[in-house]
Amino acid sequence: MQSLIESTLITTHATSPEATATDATSYRPRLCAAVLLSTDSLTAVALSALCLQLYRLFLGALPAFPPRRSTSMDLVLLFAGVIAYLALKGRYHQRIPFWTETRLVTGASLGAIGLECAATLLAGGQGVRWAVVGSLLLFAPFATLANHQAKHALSRLGLWTMPVVFVGDGSSVAATEAALNSDRSLGYRIVRCISSFAVLADAPDQPLRRTMERYGARQILIAMAAQGDLHGRVIEAALHERVPFAILPQPGVFPAFAYEATHFFGHNAIFLSFRDGLSDPLARTSKLMLDVTVATLLLLLTAPLFLFIVALSWLDGGPALFMHTRVGARGRRFRCLKFRTMVVDSERVLQEALASQPALAAEWAATRKLHNDPRITPLGRFLRKTSLDELPQLINVLRLEMSLVGPRPIVESEVSLYGDAIAQYYAIRPGLTGLWQVSGRSNTSYQQRVQLDVWYVNNWTIWHDIIVLLKTVPAILSRDGAV
């Protein structure tokens, strides 16, 4: 269900059967599967050759190139196993969201590395073949990138683009499309939106198959809404006609998606048991270890930059750090650290600017923010744009007051704005970065920010933390929504 919610539909709506004729004839799922399989295979071959050659050049452990048969055979067998596993998981014929697919490929590569280490130890070898380990480590990012580019090229040719019919009513269609608008590599193309009543009334015999044939579609997407009886009939028709279909629950019905399904043999009953990642002691320990390890490394790596910013901040006679009281986990208050970005006498500067500039005063009265704030120093403006002003919060992470990833730390006056959602905020330490920071920051409304925090807490996994950390770098470089 989570994979479905992460998916993207390229929402181009056709108004006639002729508009979809090209889609129906261009779509080549078997050719696409062959191309994607070949892409992974060529990536594996290229990485193996590169790592073996580098190992020979820099470590001198291999007497000649090509290398010993045992190392080559290890690579062949392990990569064959990885690619076979990915094929069984649907990488080459199913439409898997980018980050779900990244997790799949990364898990397969790490599993193969584990097998290599275990086999070496059992064989009494002198050590792990690092050329093999290096090839498998590089396979995850390079294969994911190559696969993504291959899908993009296939989509441009129309070979990967799957025409689908969207069956839904009212607001569920627009809301579901908005939720699915995040991953362009999946290649869905909506060729028609039609209500449940219309599709059932269209033809008494095989209404869904006839609808698919009329619009050249390859799949039916059923957006569930309040009219459960109509959608139940649509699903029954899809099962009776044996047409490919997917069900999209009404947005808001499932505010979280970390469920495990329990089926009962011979019965149409299903239990969805919620898995609360934050209640798992092992998972929370993993998050804590990730926070402490990465924060320590980042502080060591950025120590020269840290000291340089401190020196520049002291030039105007003020302190380098600014401490502000924020609300943390379980409602506890803590002193959040930031580099000072405003002039020392900021309150006086603000009052003088508001008194002399009516437009500025009106902006301050409406939003309590200023787009061109006269209090911000030139260095402070740069620090805010690059988010370097938050670098000292790594100390808050080491003090276990904050986490690397979590909700944006709030002040006391913002507690009431969260409403009932404040319970989710209190459940976890606020983060140095989070979904809000990688989703446009100031370009999003406060309500959207709260929704992102709630989604993060309800669906937390260590993998989601890794995704946010990876997306933080391009978000900072693009300065999207920075003020």
Question: Could you characterize the architecture of this molecule?
Answer:
By secondary structure, this protein is an alpha/beta fold. The protein has four domains: 2-25 and 161-254, Rossmann fold; 29-156, no CATH class; 281-341 and 376-478, no CATH class; 347-372, no CATH class. Helix content is 54%, strand content 11%. The protein has 20 helices and eleven strands. A five-stranded parallel sheet has the order 1-3-2-4-5. The protein has a two-stranded antiparallel sheet with strand order 6-7. A two-stranded antiparallel ribbon has the order 8-9. Helix 10 (228-241) links the parallel strand 4 (219-223) and strand 5. The radius of gyration is 27 Å and the shape is globular. The two termini are 36 Å apart. Mean pLDDT is 81; it is low at 1-23 and 61-69.
How many H/I helices?
Answer: 20
Radius of gyration: 27 Å
Give a quick account of the main beta sheet: strands, pairing sense, barrel closure: 5 strands, parallel
Secondary-structure-derived class: alpha/beta
Which descriptor suits the 3D outline?
globular
Strand order of the largest sheet: 1-3-2-4-5
Number of strands: 11
How confident is the prediction overall: mean pLDDT? Answer: 81
Helical content band: 40-55%
Residue windows where pLDDT falls under 50 for at least 5 positions? 1-23, 61-69
Distance between the termini: 36 Å
Beta percentage is 5-15%
Number of domains: 4
